[in-house]
Amino acid sequence: MARSNQVHSSPPVGLPPLSPFPVSAAADPETETNVGRLAATIERLRGEVLQAQSAAEGRALVELAKGVLIERLRCSVTSAAQQLASLAEQAGMTQLELAADIINQAAQDRISEVARAFLASAHSDEPAREAADIAVRLRSAESGVLQATDAQAVVDSLLEHALTPLGATAVAVWEAGADASLTLAGYAGFTAEEAKRWRYVPPGVETPARRALVRRESIWLPDLSALGLPSIGRRETPGGRVTVPAGTGGRIFAVLEVGWPDPLPPQPPQIRKQIEALAELCAYSLDVPDEPASAPEPEALSELIDLAGTLPDAALILSPCLDGDGRLGDFRIQHANARFVDPTGRPRNMVVGALLLEAYPLAAEDGGLWEKIERVHATGEPFRADKMTLTAMVDQVSLSSVADVSITRHRGNVLLIWRLQDEAAQLANLLQHAQRLGRIGGFEENLTTGQIIWNSQLYALYGMGEGEPPIPLDRLAGHSHPDDAAAIGHFLRTVLHHRRPASAAFRLRRPDGIARHIRVVAEPVFDADGKPSAIRGAYQDISAQHWTEVALAATRDQLAHTEQQAAERNRLALQLQQAIMPPSREPMEAFDLQIAVRYRPAEQEHLVGGDWYDAVVLPSKQILLSVGDVAGHGIDGATGMVVLRNASRGLAATGAGPAQLMAWLNLVAHHLTDQVTATAVLGLYDPQTRILRWARAGHLPPVLVRNGRAAELDLIGGTLLGAVSDSSYEEGQVQLASDDILLMYTDGLIERRDRTLQHSLEQLLSTAGHPASDLERLLDHLLLHSNSDTDDDTCLVGIQLR
Description:
Helices cover about 40% and strands about 25% of the residues. By secondary structure, it is α+β, with helices and mostly antiparallel strands. The chain folds into 5 domains: about 30-105, Arc Repressor Mutant, subunit A (Orthogonal Bundle); about 145-285, 2-Layer Sandwich (Beta-Lactamase); about 300-415, PAS domain (Beta-Lactamase, 2-Layer Sandwich); about 440-540, Beta-Lactamase (2-Layer Sandwich); about 575-800, PPM-type phosphatase domain (Phosphatase 2c, domain 1), CATH 3.60.40.10. A hairpin with a 2-residue loop joins strand 23 and strand 24 (about 710). Helix 1 (about 30-75) packs parallel to helix 3 (about 95-105), helix 2 packs across helix 3 and helix 4 runs antiparallel to helix 10 (about 270-285). The longest helix has about 45 residues, at about 30-75. About 35% of the residues are buried. Pfam families: ANTAR (PF03861), PAS_3 (PF08447), SpoIIE (PF07228).
C-alpha cells in the first residue's frame, strides 16, 4: 500500500481561515481572471506552507510512534513506517492522529487520561474526532515542552499547540519561592511592559496564582475584571482566568496561569483535565534547584541541624518520604535537638528515624499538625500558631498539651518548633504521664468538710464517670472482694484510727463487673496543731503484675515438669545406647583379621547422639564393618541409630554388595523412619581375596595406614541417607596387605569449632601414623590425642591384617 506523505490534512487549529483577494466589480474580465488565478496560487502555496509546518511539528510524534511499533512488533524502521501508513489509511486517520493514539496507549499518562475522558463521553463520531485532535494537540505541546530550553519556550509551546484552540490568548508560568513568593518564569500573550511590572510577587499579595498555591488546587475565575483581583494582564486580558498548581512529590514549585479575553463560561471536566495535564507538563520541564528528593541533601540537612541546635525550644527536622508513584506519603524525622522532649516519654533515639505518622498518628486529624506541615512543605508559606493543641496517643489514652508552634520549609526539609505554655503545665503533664504509666489514681479526703477529690485516673480505675460522687475510704470494703475483708479492715484501722501510714492489696469489684487487683496506699495529713485534717493516698492497678506472677509460677511448674521429662528421655536414650554399644568391647579376630572398636559417649547426657559402629561375620564368611552418625540427639537419635544398625545387619545377610546395601539403607531411612537422616561408611571384607569393598553416604572416607604412613582412601560418591527417596551409590575397593591398618570413624573424633575440617583431617593423619605396638594401643592413642571440642559421640573401628 502506498504511503501518504501528508501528515495532517488540515491546517493547525487556531489559525484564521484564508479567503481569496477581493476583486472589484468594474475590473477588466482579463484582469479579473489573472487576479483570481494569482489569489488561488497564493492560497494553494500558503496551504502547502501550513501543511509543511504542521508536518514538521508532528514529525517528532510520528517518529516516536514508529519507535513504539519497532519495540512492540520487533520490526525494522522501514517496516514500522509502512505499518504506520497502512494502519492510518485503514482507520481513516492521518498519520499524526494515529501516532498520538499509539503514544497514548503506550504511555498511559495524564494526557492519555484526557483523551480517554473525551472518548468516554462521545456519542457520535464528532466527539471522537475531537478527542483525537485534543490528543494530537497535547502531544505536540508535550513535544515542544520537552524540546524547550527555558521556561519562555515552554509557555510559547503551550499557547501555540494546546491553549489557542481553547480560545485562550495569554499564558504565564510562575515559579514559587521558598517563602511562598512568586516569580514570573515565562509568559506569552502579555506585553513586555506588563511582564516587567509583574516580574516578582511578594508573599502575602492575593492573586489568582497565589490562591492556587495556597489552596493547592485549581482556581477557575469566570471573569477576572468582575472580581477585582490583581494579576498580570488584567487590562489586556480581563476575561476568564484559571490558575493550576504544578509540582511533584507533594511539593508545589510552579503555578500555570491561563487567560481569556472574554468571560469564561463553565467548562466541562474534560477541558479542566486538559489544563491540569498542561500544568503537569510544566512541573516536569522546569528546572527547580531545590526540588525535594527522596533523601535529604547532606549539606542542607547539616546546616539545618546546626540551626536547630541553637534554638531555645524543642525542634524536629522532617524530610519528605515519597511513595512508588512519586507522591508524598509521610515525613521522616531526621533529627531532634537537645531540648526535644517526647510527649509520650520515649527517648530521642526511638523517635529519630521514624515516620511522623507512625510516631504521632493523631497528627493526621483534620486541621491537625500533619495538615499544617504538608501545606508548608507544598507551598513554602511559613505557619505559626499560639496555643495550638498537640495530641499524642499513649497506650490507648490520648494526651493533649498546648504549645506555640512554628513550621518553616528549608529547601526540601521542614523545621517544626514548639514551646509548651509554661513550666507548671509541663510539670502537670509529667505527673499525668507518671500516673498513667504507673496506673496510679490519687485521692484526698478532707476530714473536716468531708470533701473528697479524685483525679481522672482514679475514676478510670474504678470504672466510674468523672461526674459521679467519689467513694469514701471507709466504704472501701463494700467495693472489694469478700475474701479481702480482713486486709481492708486492718488497713482502715491503721489509717483512720491509729493515724499511721498503711497499704493493702485487694480485689476491686467495679460496676461493670470487671475485677482488678489494686494496691492502696494512704497516710494522714496533720494541721499545725498536730490534729489530722485529711487522708491522702493513691490506688495502683497491679493486675498485670499479679497475673504475671501467676503466669510465672505456672511457667516454673511447667519448666520443672519439662526438665523432668527431658531427663527421663535422656536416661532412656543413654540406656538404649549403652545396651547396644557398650563403651568398651573385647577385641575380636576373624580369619586373618584383627578387629578393635572404641566408643566414647558425649560427656553431657542431653547430647546423647546417634553414632554407631558394627563389626560382624556374615554367613557368607565375609566381615561387615560399618560406622554411622544419625542427625539429632536424645531418644530420637538413639532410636534412629538402632533402626539403621539393625537394618544394615539384616540386609547384609542377603549377600549384596556395599553399594546396594547403602541404597537399601537409604530407602529404610527415608520411608520406614520419621524423617531420619544419617551419614555412614559400610565395608565388606573377603578373607579369601583380602579385598575390602566399601561405600559411603556423605561420610568421611576410611583411613589406610601402610608402612607407617596414613592416607585417606580415594573419595567416592554417595549422598546422605534419608535425604531423597531414591539414590545410587558408588563402590570402591582396596587390596589389603600384611600389617595394613584400616580406620573408620565418626566426626566426633576430629571436629572442632575453631578449625576447618581439612586441618582436622591432616591432624588425624599425622596422629594415625604414630608407631604403636598393636591395634588396641593405636586406637587408644587416637582417642587420647583427639582435639575435638564439640562434645559429640565418637565411634572408631580399626582392622589390621596379619
